[in-house]
Amino acid sequence: MNAVPKPPLAMPAPLVSASDIVQEYAKPDGTTLRVLDAITLKFERPSINMLLGPSGCGKSTLLRMLGGVRPWDVKTPTSGRVEIEGAVCEGPHRDAVMVFQQYANRPDLTVRQNVAYPFQFLEWKRRVSKTEMDSRVDEMLKQVGLEDKHSHFPSQLSGGQNQRVALARALVLRPKVLLMDEPFGALDAQTRSNMQALLLSMHKTAPCLVVFVTHDVTEALLLGDRVIVLSTQPARVIDDFQIATPTPRTEGWLQGQEVRQLHERVVGHLRAAGSRGNVRVSV
Ligand code: ADP
Question: How far does residue 36's CA lie from ligand 1's centre (Å)?
């Protein structure tokens, strides 16, 4: 008897995909500004993806779009589509959260209340019980090392501690997609390095898809499973490579010849794209 051939297994949809994205904004003189052009990117699984490009090229526009966040008065994207787990993303997605350089902690709330803040919203009240919320918030405060500061207000914290609160508020939701817009850009070198280590360790505990915008090439190489470089406006993908070395990566690794060449390659792209003053070139 002939064996009945098995149907091919369906491939799971990428976690996030952006297909043929074009974004245009209206200019005051009535013409349009094309910011993103023919951007196609797929993110198959939880990983850390670093996004670089010259200032003003459209990184934030693309980042927000990946989570369905868009200006209220602009059709976003102008053409193309973003999908999350195979479903077209047409508005802010409940499994995507953002962390910004300006950490946006509420000054009138304590550290604990800031971390618990998203659970005020009906959507999250429905999804997570009060007991579960309390235990998640406690666990998150422990992970970011702010247990003893739980009743402090943001004005009583350093910049790094405030960014820890913002990171905790994002991760307490256990997002599938974490979108970070230069989150450590305003921190001093030592605090930035501590926050990078914290992000890596928290990502190992609870893997999700991270897309992380940075100006710092060294930061991209230290954190990224993948590095994507955009050109100047209208932005296109001009480089896209994987880094297989496990994290955390060492100073010695950074100094290796192959990595120095990668560093030069990215800096070269950014210089060619006309980036002025925004690229940190130290290894
Ligand atoms: P980047 O993050 O790379 O610095 P942005 O995505 O913030 O770049 O902005 C890219 C370009 O799009 C800039 O020229 C900016 O002025 C323009 N832009 C961004 N948002 C809007 C908007 N809502 N309306 C009009 N122009 C915008």
Answer: 10
Looking at the structure, do residues 72 and 119 belong to the same domain, yes or no?
no
DSSP conformational letter for 98: E
Eight-state DSSP code of residue 184? T
Model confidence pLDDT, tens digit, residues 265-280: 999 999 987 655 445 5
Same domain flag for 182 and 259:
yes
Q: Which amino acid is at 112?
A: R
Mutation pick for ligand 1 pocket among 23, 25, 72, 78 (CB with most ligand atoms within 8 Å): 25
Give the DSSP H or E segment for 23: strand 16-26
Distance between CA 86 and CA 14 in Å, rounded? 7
From the CB of 185, is ligand 1 less than 6 Å away?
A: no
Q: 117 CB less than 6 Å from ligand 1?
A: no
Strand partners for 104:
none
Q: Report angle CA 119, 99, 158 to the nearest 5 degrees.
A: 95
Give 28-69 pLDDT, tens digit per residue.
999 999 999 999 999 999 999 999 999 999 999 999 999 998
3 C-alpha to center of ligand 1: Å?
A: 58
Calculate how far, in angstroms, residue 254's C-alpha sits from the geometric centre of ligand 1. Answer: 32
Does 213 lie in the same domain as 109? Answer: no
